[in-house]
């Protein structure tokens, strides 16, 4: 029977004496994460978000698992459904799991306060797009200690070897952050960052909202409204999220609607001033 590329990759990397690992998107793979946790020793997995500034998101953040038997059922299940975007595979030197974890922790939070964001390295689409656009000389600083990676790219499997595995500082201007994101990736990133912002700054109000409606549905609808109004600047997104979160109906008031011939910036400034007036914070 002809083996698929990821199966051949796993066999070859194991033959070379490398450790194999699954970089898992835990947010959408809770069941698989629990399955792998049950079959793994404590030294065979790590939560990347743990012991970082976003530790509160650890339950939905990426996990990295060492795989000793690549032919086991959990791995085969993941390989059978690559279009579910569960993550990707990597090979490491033996004992290299902590080094890989630290490598991605150093690259995890991007931007400056108060407009920081999370880099979704564990998403196979993010990895594939970066490797497609980066020059080969940028691979080592991006992949770090990983010897080789195997991932689903669009409609097929791909693998890439790291020409110089090792430990590297984060460049002043990381080239992988200059790679244009797809519309789907941009939407997912905005959703994740919005959730992180509300959990960090408005956790009680967010918990109250969650008692009344599905918070993910509300978040998506609110971000869709921001997109329709062309409010994409961090200041505009934070204003919309915060005001809607604390509003009795968790939605914009009637005066928020766009007026004829009003530009997005004019619209935002008018709504901000009117909101301050109605809240007693400023004269109209």
TrEMBL record:
A Pfam family per the record? DUF4123
Q: Which residues form the DUF4123 domain?
A: 22-136
Taxonomically, the superkingdom here is Bacteria
Q: What is this protein called?
A: DUF4123 domain-containing protein
């Amino acid at each position: 029977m002809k083996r698929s590329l990821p199966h051949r990759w796993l066999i070859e990397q194991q033959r070379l004496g490398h450790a194999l690992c699954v970089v898992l998107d835990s947010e959408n793979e809770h069941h698989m994460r629990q399955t792998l946790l049950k079959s793994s020793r404590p030294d065979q997995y790590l939560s990347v978000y743990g012991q970082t500034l976003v530790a509160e998101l650890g339950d939905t953040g990426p996990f990295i698992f060492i795989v000793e038997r690549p032919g086991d059922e959990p791995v085969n299940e993941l390989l059978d459904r690559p279009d579910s975007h569960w993550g990707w595979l990597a090979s490491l030197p033996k004992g290299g799991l902590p080094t890989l974890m630290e490598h991605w922790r150093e690259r995890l939070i991007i931007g400056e306060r108060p407009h920081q964001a999370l880099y979704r390295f564990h998403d196979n689409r993010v990895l594939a797009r970066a490797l497609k656009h980066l020059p080969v000389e940028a691979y080592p600083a991006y992949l770090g200690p990983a010897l080789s990676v195997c991932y689903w790219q669009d409609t097929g499997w791909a693998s890439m070897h790291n020409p110089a595995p090792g430990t590297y500082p984060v460049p002043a201007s990381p080239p992988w952050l200059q790679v244009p994101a797809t519309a789907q990736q941009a939407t997912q990133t905005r959703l994740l960052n919005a959730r992180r912002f509300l959990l960090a700054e408005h956790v009680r109000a967010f918990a109250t909202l969650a008692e009344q409606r599905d918070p993910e549905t509300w978040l998506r609808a609110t971000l869709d409204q921001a997109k329709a109004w062309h409010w994409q600047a961090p200041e505009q997104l934070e204003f919309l999220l915060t005001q809607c979160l604390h509003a009795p109906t968790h939605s914009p008031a009637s005066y928020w609607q766009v007026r004829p011939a009003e530009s997005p910036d004019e619209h935002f400034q008018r709504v901000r001033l009117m909101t301050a007036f109605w809240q007693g914070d400023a004269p109209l």
